[in-house]
Amino acid sequence: MKYSTFEELPVWNAAIAFALKVFELTEKLDFRGLGDTKNQLERASLSIPNNIAEGFERGTTIELINFLYIARGSAGESRSMLRMCEGLERFSNFRSEISNLIGMAVNIAKQLHGWIDSLKNSEIKGVKFLTNKERERFEKNKELTEFDKEMAEFKAKHEDWLKRRQSDPNAVL
Hints:
single chain, mainly alpha, de novo design (two linked rop proteins)
C-alpha cells in the first residue's frame, strides 16, 4: 500500500498514540521532583512520530531510513526511561500503565524495524529521484513480475493436469 502523507502511516499513528499516553502519565504528580526525567521522557516519546514525519517528507529513501533509525532509537530511549520508572516505588500505582506503554514502544520499534528492512531492499531511491522514465521502468517491472507469477501458476496447474492425466488416461478432466 502506498501512503501519500505521513498521517496515513499506521506506525506514525501508533507513535502519536504512544506520545499522548506518555504525556497523560507525566501529568501525574508523581513526576514532580525527578529533575528532567519528565521532560526527557516527553521529548523522547514525541521524537518518534516527529522523526517518522520528517523522514517521510525528505523525499529520499536513504534519508527516510536514517530518520526511521532515529525514531527507533527514541522508542528505545522511551522504553528505557519507562523501565526506570517501573522500578521506582513512587510509580507502583502506575505499573500497569507503564507496562502498557512499554508494550506500545516495543510494537512501534518492531514496525519501524520491518519498514527499515523493506526500504533497505527496495530499488526505489525516493520521490526526489523518481522521474517519468523511472516510473515507467518500475511499472514495466511490476507488469513483468505479475506476468511471471501468472505463468508460474499456469505451469503448476498444467503440470497437475498432466500428472492426473498420466495416472488415469481415460478420466474426463
